[in-house]
Design goal:
- There is one protein chain.
- By secondary structure, the protein is α/β, with parallel strands linked by helices.
- It is built from six helices and 17 strands.
- The chain starts with a helix and ends in a 5-residue tail after the last helix.
């Protein structure tokens, strides 16, 4: 049975808060290496980054995105928590907005259908106007139900999220690997960075969602043909009737210019941080995993591109 195959392996891998770990057990790894060898900006002088925590986000600055924020600060970015809903006025003092794994209130503690938008229509309008006017947005929507909560926001920029789990079929290993060698990690200024010390050849993600982008989006992470998207009614509960679609050619990462601004969209949050199981510290996800050592470079390249430091 597919249910047994997927649930057993995912639980053993500890890939998700509901795939073997309780929400409370998934915590930031505050011992992770957040050093930056060649900072882009002098400390405390870089662009202003706001990390959203106003939309029941699973990843916030003071919790699971603490290592992400610490890494950015070591690159000179000025990083702050943002507890306010989105409006043109409230975004006036922000250079880069990070929205990671937002949820509608009805899905807090209930990762099951329906999964309505995490954002009010007027917030989406404000974000689109702000980006087109010169702001930069990093939008991250992980596997179900997070992808569903971000559908409307992503659609404002022409992206279409599939509200499910993007998985290799048959499931092999506990991570998703994108490489330059096989073409799943595309050549781009974001994967090249400023030079050899920034170049990313292998990127590791930790079970997320898949999406499609508009024609002018730059494809960064592309699923190979053996991937599928499973869309259950309850997170991590799969069976033979669970809807599934082929995901070959779908994306887990893309970047695009929108008006005078920039947007980067990703379908997995773990790659941007460093997390661990509070009860089993060796169970880790993010750039604290040894084979994900190049993830740090990728994070910094994405943020530098959003800041305009990369063309």
């Amino acid at each position: 049975m597919r249910k047994c195959k997927y649930v057993l392996i995912l639980a053993m891998a500890g890939l998700s808060a509901l795939g073997g770990l309780s929400v409370a057990q998934v915590v930031a790894d505050r011992d992770a290496d957040v050093a930056v060898d060649y900072p882009e900006f002098d400390i405390g002088t870089g662009p202003r980054v706001a990390i959203d925590s106003a939309h029941h986000n699973f990843h916030t600055l003071n919790d699971r995105f603490w290592p992400f924020a610490a890494l950015l600060r070591n690159d000179g970015f000025r990083v702050a928590d943002r507890t306010l809903t989105f409006s043109t006025k409230e975004l006036a003092d922000v250079d880069i907005l990070v929205v990671a794994n937002a949820l509608n209130e009805i899905n807090v503690g209930h990762w099951s259908t329906p999964t309505p938008s995490a954002f009010k229509p007027e917030e989406i309008t404000a974000i689109k106007s702000w980006v087109d006017g010169g702001g930069s947005l990093l939008l991250i929507a992980d596997h179900f139900p997070f992808a569903g909560a971000a559908v409307d926001m992503a659609a404002a920029f022409g992206f279409t999220f599939i509200n499910g789990f993007a998985l290799r079929d048959p499931l092999i290993g506990d991570t998703d690997v994108f490489t330059r060698k096989d073409g799943t990690l595309r050549d781009d200024v974001i994967t090249r960075g400023r030079g050899d010390h920034d170049t990313v050849s292998v990127l590791i993600t930790f079970t997320g969602s898949a999406f499609q982008g508009p024609p002018n989006a730059r494809r960064l992470l592309v699923f190979p043909g053996e991937y599928v998207v499973l869309s259950p009614e309850v997170a991590w509960e799969f069976n033979e009737e669970t809807p599934r679609i082929p995901a070959g050619g779908y994306l887990q990462g893309a970047a695009m210019v929108s008006g005078n601004g920039r947007i980067a969209v990703f379908g997995e949050a773990g790659l941007f941080s460093a997390q661990k199981n509070a009860q089993e510290p060796l169970l880790r996800t993010g750039f604290n995993v040894p084979k994900a050592s190049e993830n740090k470079r990728f994070i910094l390249n994405v943020m530098r591109w959003l800041a305009g430091a990369l063309p």
